Amino acid sequence: MTNHWIDLKNADCVLMMGANPAENHPISFKWVMRAKDNGATLIHVDPRFTRTSAKCDIYAPIRSGADIAFLGGMIKYILDKDLWFKDYVNNYSNASFIVGKDFEFKDGVFSGLDKKTGNYDRSKWNFELGPDGEPLKDPTLQNPRCVFQLLKKHYARYDLKTVSRVSGTPEKDLVKVYEAYAATGKPDKSGTIMYAMGWTQHTTGVQNIRTMSIIQTLLGNMGMAGGGVNALRGESNVQGSTDQALLFHIIPGYMRTPLAAQPTLADYVKAATPVSNDPKSANWWQNTPKYIASLLKAMWRDVDIETAYTYMPKLETLSSKDYSWLVMFDKMLQGQFQGFFAWGQNPACSGANSNKTREALTKLDWLVNVNIFENETGSFWKGPDMDPSKVKTEVFFLPCAVAIEKEGSITNSGRWMQWRYMGPKPLGDTMPDGDIIMVLMKKVKALYEKDGGAFPDPIKNVYWDYGNDHHDFDPHKVAKAINGYFLKDVTIGDKTYKAGTLVPSFAMLQADGSTSSGNWIYCASYTEDGNMSARRSKEQSPMQAKIGLYPKWAWSWPVNRRIIYNRASVNAEGKPFAPNKAVIEWDGSKWVGDVPDGGWKPGEKHPFIMRPQGMAQLYGPGAADGPFPEHYEAMECPIASHPFSKQLHNPTALHFSEEKKAVCDPRYPFVGTTYRVTEHWQTGLMTRYTDWLLEAEPQMFCELSEELAKMRGIANGDKVIVDCQRGSMWAIAIVTKRLKPFTIDGQVVHQVGFPWHYGWLYPKNGGDSANILTASVGDPNTGIPETKAFMVNVKKA
User: Fold this and answer.
1) Phi, psi dihedrals of residue 182, rounded to the nearest 5°
2) Where would I find the Molybdopterin oxidoreductase domain in this sequence (predicted)?
3) In the chain, domain spans
4) Which of 163, 138, 142 is nearest to 152 (CA)?
């Protein structure tokens, strides 16, 4: 989230799309309703009419997988109606930048596509540069190759009639949504977007969010109170785990993972550090040398940074070697893995194409399952269609403590790092995750010390002072290591910081190895003043109180900033565009309100400091599948062509050529999607064992419209069989008015939906995972599976 949960109340319009917050994020919905109490317009765009829809002023139905068509139509509406925030777009976006002559777009494909590899040569999308190496600009926005004109040209095809043909959303509903949301383009108004997996789990997932960021830039909603692009995480620490580099292509603090082609620290720094000659660009990533050096010293304190860098794991080029989820299990199926740690997860149910995942697990030598209960992953070998005598995988189960039995921090969707203390002690022989890691690492280090190995030095030399005299894990030591220390006496300005003291801000990290920090964005979270995330003060200034910043409640990265890019909320003189809900303001000598995005005086630096040019990106040449979002159908879809272009699918989508996909296949005529219910969580491992939750939602169901039920002779409560290219499962039919048929390009298309909280292990009559049905295809930027749009058949059992 660029903003935070409480800030939702400041919005004049809340667009919820790809999310169902009333049911799946009910605590957040309190702040949505607070916005409504203040006069905000609430909009819900979803294939189903849900409890969220029931609380909204406007509901618009949409077929799963048509989000870019819907949002592209909004971009055209904003531009055609001249509703964009001109001062904001002219001064704070790359609208005026001139794009190079190599850029083209034809028939749904951008220039530079290698059809054999499915990869783009993104150098074809570069800006035209001047003698100083900076993009050429046209402040009048009239040059036909400037971003603004290319944007208008790109979305000229997205008229109401065509968008309705593709999305199934009636034109009158499109106009209602566009008109209501575009009204936030005024300086004193703001609109926010709330999205979740309904946007991300597509082969165009990243571009779904990019499209909304374009809208937010056109309307001037970034950096504003009640604005921003706000992701609703499905678990309390998803944000924190991503910050700490859960994903393979980043290391802590969203730095790039080193590549094999970067064998030295100097090679990495050169490749990862952008250069800008614009004196008004903060170009924040120019600090990469400080952040990587401090990370290396956090991991290998007693080793020089050049040697420590050689210890870092290196990726092959991302285009030739992919370590994302779907690829990992595909390689596992091919026998390329010996072992697998399934830590706090249940991939036998949570992963797309669950039958493939389960089959892949049979190819391992060993599997370690770390969880609070036995689950389908640890028990896969005795599950449906499995012959235990033919499974060679040896499974180990390590029982771990539950959340309330351990101490440490979580970082919620709004980037608030909050400290939680241990309640009851872990039961029996269970251990907190940190303690399990400590035991394992102690054993691994001992083995390397005894037997050596192919590359022992990174293990033997790692800094590992995170426990006490035994093996116990000390979360405070880890939190301090993540924050970072001065390792030598360092003088900054007129103050000397002694070796061994905690670094008070990432601005003080050094590139020479004299500081450590396990994650630069968390530097300032645990200082000599104490554990900032443990704070629980409601104190705030009158200005802060007006929008609900609560700066002394917990701690927010970076440097306790609550609203990212907040210098875009003021004009060149530092005066708020929306004085009635100002985020920051220049009082003549200093900034007041939130922690500003850099302490420069008004007008000294462009506001979007993480971009090399300092501007919001209407044109984003860094994405794998194009600088402008383009509508592509899901890899499984009910139509053979669409009216936007000749390119049906995302040409760069992650897929496996040997796996079949249903496109306009009469055997699988219905669009399927997955979602959550309030009563269950994730794969249901904790909630399925809770009697009163299981009583409320006892088994797998299939939600379908009254029209489809009548067509197939299905009554409410009937048992149905759902099948697809990858397998089949049973479900109980819920016949509902919440789903209606769509008219897509002149034909009737039905959509059905399934919760993904079940598995075969418990309860015995609960059914199996909805992910048996979902396909092994994913977004080219992240590899996230496309579980929100796939093709199925439904028939009465």
Assistant:
1) -65, -20
2) 2-442
3) 6-98+155-236, 534-593, 670-796
4) 142
- Characterize the bridge pairing of strands 727-736 and 701-705: parallel
Alpha helices in 665-759 (DSSP H): 691-696, 706-712
As a whole number, mean pLDDT of residues 543-548 equals 97
Rounded to the nearest 10 degrees, the angle between the axes of helix 288-299 and helix 265-272 is 140
Best CA proximity match to 165, nearest among 792, 626, 743 = 743
* Residue 151 parent element (H or E): helix 147-154
Tens digit of pLDDT for each residue in 477-494? 999 999 999 999 999 999
Please, are residues 370 and 342 in contact by the beta-carbon 8 Å criterion?
Answer: yes
Residue 286, classed as helix, strand or coil, is helix
Q: What is the mean pLDDT of residues 353-382?
A: 97
First-to-final CA distance of the chain: 44
Residue type, 756: W
List, in order, residues 6 or more apart from 367 with CB less than 8 Å away.
Answer: 339, 340, 342, 361, 377, 378, 393, 394, 395, 396
Predicted local confidence at residue 188, as pLDDT: 95
For residue 84, report the phi and psi dihedrals to the nearest 5 degrees: -80, 150
Q: What tokens were used for 423?
A: 């309640």
What's the CATH fold of domain 670-796? Barwin-like endoglucanases (2.40.40)
pLDDT single digits (tens) 160-209: 999 999 999 999 999 999 999 999 999 999 999 999 999 999 999 999 99
pLDDT confidence of residue 318: 57
CA 47 – CA 24 distance, rounded (Å): 16
CA quadruple 525, 526, 528, 529: dihedral sign: positive
Tell whether omega for the bond before 252 is within 30 degrees of 0, i.e. cis: no
Q: What is the CA 543 to chain-centroid distance, rounded?
A: 31
The per-residue pLDDT for range 4-26, each reduced to its tens digit, is 999 999 999 999 999 999 999 99
Q: How much of the chain, in percent, has pLDDT values that exceed 70?
A: 99
Partners of 674 in beta bridges? 754
Cα–Cα distance measured from residue 439 to residue 527, given in angstroms and rounded to the nearest whole number: 28
Helix (H, G, I), strand (E, B) or coil at 475: helix
| Those residues with Cβ within 8 angstroms of residue 753's Cβ, 6 or more apart along the chain or in another chain | 47, 48, 672, 673, 674, 675, 702, 703, 739
Q: What is the mean pLDDT of residues 271-277?
A: 95
Does residue 650 register a pLDDT over 70?
yes
- Predicted confidence at residue 657, as pLDDT, reads 87
Per-residue model confidence as pLDDT tens digits over 418-449: 999 999 999 999 999 999 999 999 999 999 99
Kindly report the three-state secondary structure assignment for every residue of 613-680: CCCECCCCCCCCCCCCCCCCECCCECCCCECCECCCECCCCECCCCCCCCECCCCCCEEEEEECCCCC
DSSP secondary structure letter of residue 601: P
Tokens of 797: 């059992």
Environment class of 325 (CB within 10 Å of its CB; exposed 0-12, middle 13-18, buried 19+): buried
Q: What string of H, E and C letters represents the secondary structure of 224-263?
A: CCCCCEEECCCCCCHHHHHHCCCCCCEECCCEECCECCCC
Whether CATH 3.40.228.10 fits 6-98+155-236: yes
Sign, Cα dihedral of 688, 692, 697, 700 = positive
pLDDT computed for residue 319 by the predictor: 57
Q: What's residue 614's pLDDT?
A: 95
